[in-house]
Amino acid sequence: MSDIKPNVNFMLQYYLPHYKDKKMQDKRDYYSSHKVNDYIKYVDTGIKDLKNIDFVEYTNNRTKSSGIFNKNGKMNKKEISEVREHLRETQSVIWSGVISFEEKFGLKWCNNHAQAEHILKSELPKFFKRSGLNPDNIEWFAGLHENTDNRHIHLVFFEKQPIRIKKNGKAFSMGKLSINAMKEFKLHIEECATDFRAREIKIRTSVIKSVKEELNGVSSFKLKNKLLKLADKLPPTGHTYYECQEIKNLQPFVDEIANYIFNKNINIKSYKEDFDDIVKEKDEFALNYCKRNGYKNPTQSIGDKMMKDLYRRVGNPIIEKAKEIKKEEIKRQKYNAKYKSGKIIQKKKLQSLLNQCLYLNSLVEYESIKAFQDYQRRLYEVRIKALIEQGIIIEDDGFKM
Description:
six-stranded antiparallel β-sheet, rod-shaped
């Protein structure tokens, strides 16, 4: 076991609806807010015995707590009064827990109400599900305590409608929750507190958005050619999404196009490098967590899963764009073929018109020549007639009119 302390600890107690033992019943009653006025005594004396603590008052004291909150945010006096009444009336098991943070970790990652609220609102519903509870049937409230070096969150939850009953239906089950669920809860709290998830989502969204923008305005001949080659390899029928069986052998080719896009655009390249950094950071986080808590190293790299998920999210729009470009190319080729065919027909028509024009031109030329010849003959006859009339030429010379 490593000497390094974990960043997050989680301790959980539970109190059944009814006890034969008076001491245990008193603890249940105090958690059910039956000793409202004892809070002042606790503040004055610093007594930490639960029998003298009203939990709702304790967590809502501003000298110790940043205020009570639930899934809807900070609770007002009316909401506190209502939850106090629900605690008195419920026949559910009441679970009471403390989430404590290593000093430096807590000061950095859970040092205010907003951080604490973000963590619980994000992770509690998942913890309830892993523990076999219905999140919609759970009422919970919590408060971050800042009066010690180690920041810690007090948490109380119970079922609105008690359904954790034994098979015989006569009594409620014990309040023990899954150890594995509690371990996962600690891991996810640490992960959520350090904002890995939010950072991952933000960077991944930027990468995917930029890739889609690049695909929407494909201007690179090389990228278009790669997409056409991918489209030619796609099966003509069946599924064509990234993780389907029909595309599995094409994943390396899709990833190659993704890497080309990552490196082609300087902004996308920058986003991808940020994503690579967070993948590396998250892997180191998981290894350090296992080391601190004495667990074996994970058999599957978290970073590998993140990277695979990114390529899947980028791969699907790449496949769709390849199919779209293929359709456009087929349409273009059909248009070109139709245009070429049209040009041939048009050429034939023009040739036919030209032939007709040449024919008509030849007719015109023939008629023009014939008319000119006729004109010349008539003109010659007129000249002869004039000479005869002048007596220069006589008809007996062989000229007849």
